[in-house]
Amino acid sequence: MTDSGSTPVPRGGHGRFVTFEGGEGAGKTTLIRALVTELGQSGREVVVTREPGGTLLGGEIRRLLLSPDQHVEAVAELLLYGADRAQHLGEVVRPALARGAWVLCDRHVDSLVAYQAFGRGLDRVMVEQVNGWATGGLVPDRTLWLDVPVAEGLRRAGRERGPDRLEGAGLAFHERVREGFVVLAGEHASRFRRLDGTRAPGDVLADAKMALADLE
Ligand code: T5A
User: What is the pTM of this model?
Assistant: First the structure.
């Protein structure tokens, strides 16, 4: 799918671009792992990737962005996420879609709006522009938003390791991020599906499969 007016993206076969969004520790990685097994059973190619960090260049950007010791200006942060995304779309996502693969991407454009516009308070138009430059107008076919209460997500995320730079940004910041996802889900109702991330992993997987059924 492309936004009207942008360059059409060549897509072969039945390529599908599915993104997973939500606050910290929402269970995206856990869900994606379970979905790969299910989706791969039909013999289709499934590509699992993430932002930031889905490429070699992106891995370096991710390290800089998430290091708790690194001070990053808000606009620099915005542009680094944008740079990661542009590289990732060109190197991984577009080629996979052109081959007809399903691409499961842990975070994408909606994280930029939720974190950098709603969370950091950067101008939303500027944030959307960065997304537009980075993606060239490519829009996910479906976005699964795993919604969990902020405190629960932070508790889960911090259980196995100390907080990274964004996880340590404070409760009020993460409440604004969640509000961003609420707004985005309303604005993009045709591609967004809200999943209750507090349900057991097996139930979240069943909900996700239902939310993707019409893309098959
Ligand atoms: N960011 C990213 C921006 O600010 N702008 C952007 O444009 C982009 C793309 C990325 C950071 O960058 C920010 C957002 C982030 O702060 P990250 O490490 O990729 O950093 O952060 P997360 O995506 O939040 O990764 P997490 O690993 O913290 O969260 P997940 O993947 O959502 O959660 P997951 O699956 O690892 O699960 C976390 C824990 O919860 C348990 C798991 O076992 C695990 O212990 N769990 C459940 N427990 C109970 N019930 C369930 N249903 C569970 N599912 C998982």
Answer: 0.93
